[in-house]
Amino acid sequence: MRLAVDARGLRREYRVRRGPAVTALDDVSIQVEQGEVHGLLGPNGAGKSTLMKILSTVLLPTSGSASVLGHDLVTEYRRIRPLLGIVFGGERGLYPRLTARQNMRYWAALYGMSTKKGLARTDTLLDELGLAERADDRVETFSVGMRQRLHLARGIVGDPRVLLLDEPTNGLDPLAARQLRELIQRLAGEGRTILLATHDLAEAEVLCDRVTMINHGRVIATEAPKTLSRLMSRQERVRVRADTGLLDRVRALDGVLGVEPADDGTAVVSVESQQALGAVLAFVVAEGVTDVRTELPDLEEVYLRLVHRNEQRSVVNR
Question: Which pick of 111, 161, 181, 285 has the fewest CB atoms within 10 Å?
């Protein structure tokens, strides 16, 4: 396994004038394979942005170590920076009174590109990201979605091997968010390593090969989204379409924990074991039910369960 990012035991504290230090990251370890789209998932304030700032070499950890493509984050940061593309959400990184083309040429120059190469790279990226027709308009006239696409173009102008995306779809309308996700998928298809910080569970499930869930500055799980669902499936579920009388009989079966009607006319039957699941399936099939399927919890359910479990442990350990 070749690692693009290898962080071990990262800790970041912020000193305040009064009171104890605030811990933003607490013993965080994360490994991102080369060519992987890796999600960093957590609510606002979980520590995602702090970790991204450390990995982008703009913030030093209080303790711990990290490397990007084999280069030490602290001692070899000058070798790391040309390999990185960084996209933070909001207004940071763009000059609103400059045009899109001027912004891109400025960042190309910072990467050490010649004028000719910078112009060519700028034209190519603005065209690929659907901004060619607005290339000579000031960024202050752009919509939020257009600015985010320009952010992404700026982030890859240096052809980075590792792309750090911090909440790239934050504040976008659904259509603009979907378009940006498609662009991210295309970049991943080019073989780039992408670390995506987000609090959007659906986004992580669609884009990521693996996700690291973080809460209160600590890692609580790292797995593929589907694997996390399986790991957290303490109780099995089956969805059936049946009449009320049959559902009442299902509710009375041994091992059935509950039967919850859904808006689409089906009902979700929760059971305590594989044995109970088999009994429910055999019963409903014998009764002539043909619309029946087993389910795994989605990533949102998994995340909420893991956060709840982590918070319970934190209370116990205090």
Answer: 285
